[in-house]
Amino acid sequence: MWDAIVIRPFINVLLLIYQLVGNFGIAIILFTLLIRLITYPLNASQIKSSTAMTELQKDKRYLDIQEKYKGDKEKLAQEQMKLYKEVGYNPMSSCLPSLLQFPIIIGLYQAIIRAMASTPFDMLNLTRHVYKGFLNIESLIPLNNQFLWMDLGQPERLQLGFINFGIPVLAIVVVVTSYMQSKLMQPASSGQPGDQAAMMSNMMTIYMPFLMGYLALTLASGLALYFFVSNVLSIVQYGIMGKLNWDNLLPKKRPAGPAGSRTVNSKAAAPKKAATKPAATKSKPAGSASTKTNPAKTTTTKAKPKKIEPPQLKGGSKEDNEP
Amino acid sequence: MKESNRKIYLVLSLIIIASLALTGCSSGATSTNNWPGVNADSETVYFANTTLLSLRMADGTVKWQYPEKADAKHLLYSPPVVLEDKILVGDYGGVLRSINPNTGTLLWTFEEADNRYIASPVVTGDQIFAASMDGTLYALNQNGVLQWKFETKAGLWVGPVANGDMVYQSSMDKKLYALKKSDGSLVWEADMGAASVTVPVLSEDASTLYVNTFSNKIIALETATGKVKWETPTNDTVWSQPFLVDGLLYFGDNAGNVYSLDASTGSVKWTITLTGAVISGGVALADGLVFTSENGEVVMLSTDGAKVWTRTITGQLYSNLVAVEDRVLVPVMKGDQLLVCFDSNGNQVWTYTPSK
Predict the structure, then answer these.
(1) Inter-chain touch B237–A220, beta carbons under 8 Å
(2) Looking at beta carbons, which residues of chain B come within 8 Å of A223?
(3) Interface A-B: count of C-beta contacts within 8 A
(4) C-alpha B168: how far from its chain's center?
(5) Does the CA dihedral A95-A96-A101-A106 come out positive or negative?
(6) By the 8 A CB rule, do A174 and A212 touch?
(7) HSE (CB half, 13 Å, CA atoms) of B176?
(8) Residue B161 in 3-state DSSP?
(9) Predicted TM-score (pTM) above 0.80
(10) Average pLDDT over every residue of B259-282
(11) Can you tell me the ipTM of this complex?
């Protein structure tokens, strides 16, 4: 079933691209790009939704609920759901596109693995996955797995004459792009002390590049190439949507003064949270939405309340919702 | 447990699951998935299935295992060659090994290949020929010292066939090469039009080579010039190694057909269809021909294509069968038993089941 619906069509499209370009490395790149284009609407919807969630987490009502019901998880969940309804935010709207994309990504991954058949058993299976009449298998086999210096069916190492070991260039590139991707796509912290989303996000930023790097180091380089292309395309997509968080990646400027500092990164913001929190909770109209632009503003009631996208969908003013 | 800690554990668990899923999905990406290779003499069976096992032909019990534990970088699947003083077997790390047949200890290695060995090595006279997936045919002396090498444009999935002062090698680059045994110089090359995954078969008088190709045909070529004598189409792709008995060629195809062809003309004498794809190469016993189908069917056929007996094994059958005197060895993939020994009447003599 899974084979017939996902894997087989994917393999045939991948091999069709290979037939057109004659190079398996380029075929993997184009195939990944094609799948990314097809799933672009799902991705865009997920990005928008998670951005809305991040903004909502900075909303005063949200923060107040966290504070008020921090000892009662059940009540907290109920109040959060009420708030989501009020502002018209659907918590499923960010995970549903991810769930829909998941089988596509797994299918893409498996199609690439199967197309790089390097044993008789894998080759036999591959020939059975090709639609008869759609592709000419006799002209396709053997697949040319050579791309640049890599054999795409084997783990990649660049051999240089003057050193006696191979350099895992692709694995290094995968680690770097995975790190960049995680950092650039990491949303700004809500500014709350012990922000769990930020903590998880930071953990993913640390562990995921190493995991991806390990996989790229040990698995066939065709897969490592897919990881790399996928990372780059994710960054490009976020860039197109204007969601890249360069502040996470670029070196932090030292705070010149209260008005000149930026607190996008949760770690960088941490020392200031103690000072900003009381002001944020006391100053009713201010909310905490300005943490992203200038934390100094959160300490004063002169700051204009920043409008947040989800609450604009429906629901009343912040004062109306004050508990 | 604090909520934050719980979420951290959740994230860590997700990362671990994701890594397991990715590495699990990728089995095969790093050469861990193939059918076993078998060879035997009258005393011993050599069974390559990640490691090399030496089993007693009498009862299938284990004599020795090399290495003690499977090495993920040097898995053994290629059928070994059995000589009096050594066993030769290539691994998936590109190492050709010579092993003492009595003790299972390593004698020497040849490590020049850049890619794995899927093909079984071939020994003729005092030369060893090792065909590698790096596209090179290596000629070695009996001590594993390189004499010459010949490079083709794609991987070599099968070994060569040798005769007189010539050696014939088919490559996945869709060509068949005729080389001088002495120095590896090219005598002729023939374009087969498609890749081949079976060893070329030499006619009894050594005048003709028979090659199956992915273009669903079997081709007969003159050994002297490489010119095509005849071509016969098959109903589907041929993975099954052909064999020649009394002027007739026998092989199976992916659609489950077993063919008998007149080797001199290529005309089809008879075909019979089994219940599944015929991927294994069959064998000839004194009482008939034994073929298997992928789905576990083991069949003895008479030389005129009638079924003599049928047996069923649980598992998938892809490896070439091996005949020793009146016995046939059937390697099994994805079955409880990894090797089954039948006599010519279809009686199960013994099975090899790995200890858990």
Answers:
(1) no
(2) 26, 29
(3) 108
(4) 17
(5) positive
(6) yes
(7) 32
(8) strand
(9) no
(10) 97
(11) 0.89
Biggest CA-to-CA distance, chain A: 75
Cβ pair A171, A217 in contact under 8 A: yes
Residue A274 has pLDDT above 50, yes or no: no
**3-class DSSP state of B354:** coil
| CA dist list (Å): A23 to A16, A26, A143, A234, B71 | 11, 6, 8, 23, 32
B248-356: CATH number: 2.40.128.630
Place of tokens 């920043």: A306
Question: Is residue B317 pLDDT above 70, yes or no?
Answer: yes
B335 token code pair: 């079955």
**Distance, CA of B133 to CA of A273 (rounded, Å):** 61
Best probe of the A interface among B1, B22, B320, by most A CBs < 10 A, is B22
Which residues are paired to B249 by β-bridges? B244, B261
Quick one: average pLDDT of B119-134?
96
Q: Which of A17, A25, A39, A18 is nearest to A233 (CA)?
A: A39
Amino acid occupying residue B316: Q
- For tokens 């065909």, what's the residue? B131
Q: Which residues contact residue A45 at a Cβ distance below 8 angstroms, ignoring those fewer than 6 apart?
A: A93, A97
Residue B148: CB partners within 8 Å, gap ≥ 6?
Answer: B139, B183, B184
Per-residue tokens: A217: 């180091």
pLDDT digits (tens, 9 = 90+) for A163-181: 888 899 999 999 999 888 8
- Looking at the DSSP bridge assignments, the partners of residue B316 are B333
Please answer whether residues A319 and A286 qualify as being in contact, where contact means their C-beta atoms are separated by less than 8 angstroms. no
Q: Do A153 and B29 touch (CB under 8 A)?
A: yes
What's the Cα-to-Cα distance from A91 to each of A17, A67, A83, A94, B264, rounded to whole Å?
A: 38, 20, 11, 6, 74
DSSP string spanning A202-216?
Answer: HHHHHHHHHHHHHHH
Question: A200, B8: Cβ pair inside 8 Å?
Answer: yes
3-state secondary structure (DSSP) of residue B189: strand
Token readout for B193 is 């039009």
Supply the DSSP symbol for A323.
-
What number is the average pLDDT over the span A298-319? Answer: 40
CA dihedral B279, B280, B284, B289 (to 10 degrees): -50
Asked if the C-beta of A135 comes within 8 angstroms of chain B's C-beta atoms, the answer is no
Ordered by start, the domain boundaries in chain A are 1-144, 147-250, 266-306
Task: Give how far the C-alpha of residue A41 lies from the chain's centroid of Cα atoms, to the nearest Å.
Answer: 15
pLDDT in tens, B182-214: 999 999 999 999 999 999 999 999 999 999 999
